[in-house]
Amino acid sequence: MQGIVFLGDRKLELRDFPDPTPGPRDVIVEMKASGMCGSDLTPYRGSPPQLPVVRGHEPCGVVVARGTSVTEDEAPTGQRVMVHHYSGCGRCKYCLVGYAQLCVKGGHLVYGANANGGHARYMLCKAHMLVPLPDEMSFEEGAAVSCGTGTAYLALKRLAVSGRETLAIYGQGPVGLSATLLAKGMGARVIAVDLSPERLQLSKQFGADVVINPSEVDPVQAVQELTHGEGAETTLDCTGQAPARVNAVKSAQMWGRVCFVGEGNTTTFEISPDIIHKQLTIYGSWTFSSVGQAECTQFILDRHLPLSKLLTHRFTLDQAEHAYKLFDTQTTGKGIFLPS
Fold this sequence. Notes:
Helix content is 27%, strand content 26%. By secondary structure, it is an alpha/beta fold. The strands form four sheets. Strands 3, 4, 5, 8, 9, 16 and 17 form a seven-stranded mixed sheet that branches. It has a six-stranded parallel sheet with strand order 12-11-10-13-14-15, sandwiched between helices. The chain has a two-stranded antiparallel sheet with strand order 1-2. Strand 13 (232-237), helix 8 (242-250) and strand 14 form a beta-alpha-beta unit.
């Protein structure tokens, strides 16, 4: 089979790999959709990797083979599945509740980063990583839930977003757009902030009540003016960029709640006036559990949320170079590879 490998410095290639063979507790999933995530851009732009692996950590497909110790009940042949893209020891308290990325034994695998991921025809993973995909949800939507959309959902749960509140979301990439869609499903009033006019237009389609371009107005002042001078009850940063993180803190009201999901970089805050004296609660939220992944899927289906609108571009594997160049412009919605 062929899989997409990052070479660093915005270079990649479609490399030949042997078709995977399952070990005793493994399964083989034929990829039907594999999503592109904003966190892919750091290794795509960065230094050449020490370990070239198949990229793609938003895998969704069909079970086609299983190891000798995996039962038919665990992984039926032909089952539609998402993949929770982490694997840990399987025995510690975090692994047992579906948070393998928090494994206390360390050395957990992140499929698509230090183990082969979904940007290929087939993916080998552990049986416990499978999350059933309901028939009502497309493979492409399932791929979105497998990282970006699921990440947004668990962040909103951390913030306890509800219809009583205004939520300011900094960044309207695939995670931020997902947060806009999901927060509207939770009843919140949403203020969407982004530098890209294209993405702000998408956020309107997703139900954002107000959109703000920080290149045109001061976003903190704009949020305050929209909230009677108080600031938003909840704010969410999906960018990982220092200015947006600071603005997320500054635009939260007294006793407000702030969540960071954007990865990387460092940020400096004025601790006393911006955090302590405002009595803020600040959360960090790192993706989701396998249980949360399934819950997010059901939330979307129960509320008939149009997640398919997030999927703006579809590619075959041999279009990878063009796909990532386009995604690197940070003007699009979700890009999806269709490996099969």
